[in-house]
Amino acid sequence: PPLDNTFRVNSVDYTIPGTSHRIPAGTFFQIPMYSLQRDPEYFPNPDQMDPSRFLPEAIRGRHPFSYLPFGEGPRVCIGLRFGLMQAKIGLVQLLKNYSFLPDPRTLDPMVFDPVSITLAPKGGMFLKIEKINV
Q1: Are 33 and 4 in contact (CB under 8 A)?
Q2: Dihedral through CA 79, CA 43, CA 59, CA 10, nearest 10?
Q3: Where are the alpha helices (DSSP H) in 1-134?
């Protein structure tokens, strides 16, 4: 995710189902999106890219709030569908015309820059991009 956490405040009192624990209205919550998306309970081998994680059967098999790229609920990003469509079109065009290879200047394993406002790799991310001649 571009940020490691997101924050919310509940607007009404809430009792956790099956318990007597009550969360009063106005409670400030920190939602650790980075940690959720790296939790092996939801995503085995979380640091490996595995496109099969996003197949419909894989999505149905995990908690619906373990992956929150656009938030969720009444505050979900209004650009969700447009952003996904635009990203898919862009990826198709890039992958159709170019091959992408790791460059030795990119740290492996990736180390995040501790002073960056967003999650960004320390020292940058470099790829070798080669045009595919068809």
Answers
A1: yes
A2: -50
A3: 33-37, 56-60, 80-97
Least Cα distance to 32 among 131, 102, 119 occurs for 119
Report pLDDT digits (tens) over 54-91: 899 999 999 988 988 777 777 777 887 888 899 999 99
User: Cβ contacts of residue 58 below 8 Å, gap of 6+?
Assistant: 52
Between strands 22-23 and 127-131, the pairing is unpaired
Task: Dig out the tokens for 94 from the structure.
Answer: 């890039």
CA distance 66 to 99: 31
Q: Model confidence over 14-41: pLDDT tens digits?
A: 999 999 999 999 999 998 988 999 999 9
Question: Would you say 31 and 6 are in contact if contact means Cβ atoms under 8 Å apart?
Answer: yes
- What's the pTM? 0.58
Give the HSE-up count for residue 71: Cα atoms under 13 Å, Cβ half-sphere: 12
The answer on pLDDT for 133 being more than 90 is: no
What does the alpha-carbon distance between residue 34 and residue 68 come to, in Å, rounded to a whole number?
A: 9
